[in-house]
Amino acid sequence: MDKTWMFVDRTTSKYDDGVDSFIRFAIVNSDDSNVIRCPCTKCRNAKLLHPNVVKDHLFVNGVLESYTTWFWHGENISSVPVEEKIESDFEVGDGLNTVEMVDAVYRDYETKPDGFVKLLSDAEKPLYSGCTTFNVLSTLVRLYNLKTKHGWTENSFSELLSLIGDILPKENSLPTSIYEAKKTLSTLGMQYTKIHACPNDCILYRKEYENSVVCPKCGLSRWKVMKNHKVKEGVPANVLWYFPPIPRFRRMLGTKEIAKDLTWHDNKRQIDSYMRHPADSPAWKVVDHKWPDFGSEPRNLRLAFSADGVNPFSNYSTQYSCWPVILATYNLPPWLVMKRKFMMLTLLISGPKQPGNDIDVYLAPLIDDLKELWEVGVDVYDAYKKEVFNLKAILLWTINDFPAYGNLSGCTVKGYKACPICGDNTVSQRLECSKKISYCGHRKYLPRGHKFRKQKKAFDGNEEHGLPPNPLSGEEVFEKVSGIHNEWGKSKKRKATRNNSDSTLSWKKKSIFFNLEYWKHLYVRHCLDVMHIEKNVCESLIGTILGIPGKSKDGLSAREDLEVMGIRDELQPQKEGEKTYLPAACYNMSRAEKKKFYTTLFELKVPEGYSSNFRNRVSMDELKLNGLKSHDCHTLIQQLLPIAIRGMLPKKVRYAITKLCLFFNALCNKVLDVNTLDGIQEELVTTLCLLEMYFLPSFFDVMVHLTVHLIHEVKLCGPVWFRWMYPFERYMKVLKSYVRKGNNVEGCIAECYIAEEALEYCAEYLKDVSAVGVPRNMNNLSSDDHGIGAGNVKLVDLKLLNQAHQYVLENTNEVEEYKEGMMMNIATKNSGVSVVANTMLVSSAKDKNPIIVDMWYYGVIEEIWLLDYNALKIPVFKCDWVKNDGGVKVDDLGFTLVDLQRKGHKNDPFIFASQANQVFYIEDPENPKWSCVIENSHEKFGNSSNDDSSDKAMNLHFPAKSIPLVETIVNTLHDDESSYVRLDGEPMYID
Predict the structure, then answer these.
(1) What is the DSSP string of 203-239?
(2) Taking CA atoms, which of 156, 418, 437, 783 is between 20 and 30 Å from 746?
(3) Residue in 641, 625, 684 with CA at minimum distance from that of residue 956
(4) Which pLDDT score is estimated for 892?
């Protein structure tokens, strides 16, 4: 298409004909022939006008000469001839992409054309006169991307801008301060709304209360009251920061790649008997079945909600708590769902007090938008399909820790009815001496004829004939709470108005989520958080077996409870003269065993990112663990604990603990076989009964009890890693990092959040700019991307070098043309490695029918060699391999043990990096000659994956591969004291 008319005199016939051809082209490609964008020098495509008015503007004001690609009028960038691209102000890349990016946000500025004109100006303005590769906006976006990714302070960034401005030519347009940079970027970000709130959490000043200056419920002023009791008018006493989700959903679908990813669940998901994604779950499918119109549109959004308190001052203040409310979108592929980029902050509830049960007051604006998205929907442009459609959304469930579970659902999470699944049928009893509630009674979940049901002495002295309670459906819960009317606010003790029935005793309020029409029909409305359950169970278990003060569930009060209950006489406090001592229970470790346990953890060497450095967590002098984080507990209970207790405690107790660890490992798998879930549940129930047999009633707090309901939720909702708090907790840390000034915490978070939103949006358009919220996979072993360690060049034995070359030549087709001109670099690094290889097995020298099987080989990486065949570089590992014959064994519990001193396969030491599975070894506490094998993750070295390191660190192999079923040990148990007393133990004397 000839565009030379744009650069000729406006009085010529060529310009006249060119304007006519442009108007015809724009009308043909416009959705509405009555309006097109005006590309004159004043309107700059910011205004929609009638074609005749546009024609007049082009003659009066002239055409925007830099607008040589008419992408706002239907022309594709790829259709522009090469010569026209070269003549443009910018090379194809950041320049055109930046203008395209600005065009995509045009709808956000229909009511603010001046702001759009400023943004367009920055997108078209060269960084300095003559610059053809960068404009002001693209440069600023790239620099701010680095600031956000690497955590630069605002002062350092301002100084960097100033320095770069001095380095560039004098007439450059780069902002010189962080303030100017934020002003520019904020135009690309979405906005937020500040809603005033009553300091006592009674109301929000919106709708009917919008113009009120005094809370109608508690009488407090809307405005801040100073220390001298003067009211500072215009300054709100409490603020809710609201980030409307609807405009953000529009922007998601307005980005081509994201719009494409939002339909992954419909067109790319693998469908079989395994669950990999919430779309595989009944909770997803019931929505499709009950509301087929909603389910027939794959772009309709399925959302999850999470809220939790965060202390932005870290350890400096334990009193302040602000509450971010975050939405996650399940339409995305599994590797994107829980990434920082797609964590959508919707509410920020100001501190310093947590809202508690009054959180419903603050959720009202979000619930209103969710109602609109369900009942009416909003018209949204899909950039991938290039069409406008009516977008709807549904909230599937909430994800919270247990106290927040109670605040959001309205059920009680303390006392006798603390289990929200069992509800009024929760089996519990008060321990008089410990002043605690115990939640035993898991024999109810066993089959009717199970032998444990008839045993008395090994449990609570009674037979068990009861059945497990049935979870309440959403309709049943709604019926129970429909008669409850709440009064919000903390000014006086809240009294919920109830009906006279006892059926509401376990419910404190009617949750605001029931305002959503569909809420009562969902299978699961509030998810139990596996992260916190796993952490609490791990701390209780380790604290009890190690006798850690403050963490142990054993002690004088717990033993006195046995006396009150009339059970387990042998474990009750005993007198020895004037001293009182507690007999050793079967779960009590001796001091020698504790020392071996702590030594195992203290000497532990694990791959980077696997866990904290346990050397800093273990106190060998005091024999205690300090400051375990949630992820430390995850690695302990998933892999390390079963190994650390090897050779300690009676075998039956050790077996029960190992089975509990195996349950959590199976529960947290990313891919779940639906057919195995019932078996996992049966194993867990029997394991809990074994623990009841060995441990005291005080051990069984509500967290231990909640494990019995986790498989039920997995069956309904899918893999737990879509429903636990780990990604949200990591995101809370990001929000805390935004705080720069202590006097306006929420304001810092809000401003930094919308700036990062703008960056994430820009990353979709600018080449070589990676998204901050989707970490790059660092597992690829490539010297072009990053180093492979502290390498050095040295002379090697010619025989070894020939072996390495021979291995490459025999196993790599691509290396044929690069056989000449080889060099070698060496980097040393010690690490465990395993590889699976096809091996021929024969029974004897005369065996004529050998079989081919896969066999595991284990070794240690001694050196990493990078073989350089000019254009092709191949990393190989030189390893010391363990001899399979006599050097590898599997014990009766399924643990793989290797003798690292027994080396073999010396004539074949090399493997490709891509063939290696990363493992590490832990010295066996039972026999130091042997080491237990721990597989780090399901990934190979150098293997490309969509998961980042934080995802892989959560998905751990269980170290025992073939542990026997729990019933094999149940059949050996008898109803006597040997189940819970340790005859060779050390008693604990009470001062």
Answers:
(1) -BS-GGGTT-SB-TTT--BSEEEPTTS-EEEEEESSE
(2) 156
(3) 641
(4) 81
- Residue position matching structure tokens 């809710």: 240
Region 756-771: mean pLDDT is: 73
Task: Give the separation between CA 795 and CA 315, rounded to whole angstroms.
Answer: 53
Structural tokens at position 436: 């605690």
Separation of alpha carbons 963 and 972, rounded Å: 17
Instruction: State the Cα–Cα distance between residues 33 and 50, nearest whole angstrom.
Output: 8
What does DSSP assign to residue 322? B
Number of H helices, E strands in the chain: 33, 32
Bridge pairing between strands 393-399 and 301-307: parallel
Output the pLDDT for position 871.
66
Summarize the confidence of residues 230-248 as an average pLDDT: 92
d(Cα 742, Cα 326) in Å, to the nearest integer?
A: 23
Q: Which of 411, 435, 663 is nearest to 561 (CA)?
A: 435
Residue 315 buriedness (CB in 10 A; 0-12 / 13-18 / 19+): exposed
| Rounded CA separation 29/925 (Å) | 75
CA-to-CA distance for 482 and 410, rounded, in angstroms? 12
CA nearest to 63, candidates 107, 112, 35, 22: 22
Which has the closest alpha carbon to 542: 636, 466, 474? 636
Q: Cα–Cα distances in Å, from 942 out to 357, 580, 917?
A: 49, 60, 10
C-beta neighbour count of 153 within 10 angstroms: 11
Average pLDDT estimate for 638-662? 92
Is residue 458 within 8 A of residue 448, CB to CB? The reply is: no
Phi, psi for 386 (deg, rounded to 5): 55, 55
Looking up tokens 């009060």, which residue turns up?
A: 557
Q: Does residue 54 register a pLDDT over 80?
A: yes
DSSP letter for each residue of 55-78: HHHHHHT-B-TT--S-GGGT--GG
What are the φ and ψ backbone dihedral angles of 406, each rounded to 5 degrees?
Answer: -65, -40
Mapping DSSP to helix (H, G, I), strand (E, B) and coil, where does residue 858 land?
strand
Tally of residues, the chain: 991
**Nearest partner of 407 among 474, 466, 319, 325, judged by Cα:** 325
448-499 residue pLDDT tens: 989 999 988 888 889 999 999 999 999 999 999 988 888 888 865 555 555 5
The DSSP code sequence of 240-298 is EEE--HHHHHHHHHHSHHHHHHTTHHHHT---SSEE-SGGGSHHHHHHHHH-HHHHT-T
pLDDT for 104: 57
- Phi and psi at residue 177, to the nearest 5°: -145, 160
Q: DSSP letter for 741, please.
A: -
Of 620, 614, 564, 553, residue with least CA distance to 587:
553
Beta pairing, strands 344-349 & 301-307: unpaired
pLDDT at residue number 903? 92
Question: What pLDDT sits at residue 701?
Answer: 95
The pLDDT tens digits of the residues spanning 270-329 come to: 988 899 999 999 999 999 999 999 999 999 999 999 999 988 886 665 678 899 999 999
Under 8 Å between Cβ of 185 and 755: yes
What is the value of pTM for the model shown? 0.83
Residue 853 predicted with pLDDT over 90: no
Q: Identify the residue whose tokens are 């879930």.
A: 677
Are the C-beta atoms of 169 and 333 separated by less than 8 Å?
no
- Find out whether 955 and 946 touch, Cβ atoms under 8 Å: no
Whether the upstream peptide bond of residue 352 has omega within 30° of 0, thus cis, is yes
The percentage of residues in the chain with a pLDDT greater than 70, rounded to a whole number, is 81
The DSSP annotation for 361-409 comes to HHHHHHHHHHHHHHHT-EEEEETTTTEEEEE-EEEEEEE--HHHHHHHH
C-alpha of 139 from chain center: 31
Neighbours of 257 (CB within 10 A): 10
Cα pseudo-dihedral 727, 729, 733, 735, rounded to 10 = 80
User: Residue 35: pLDDT above 60?
Assistant: yes
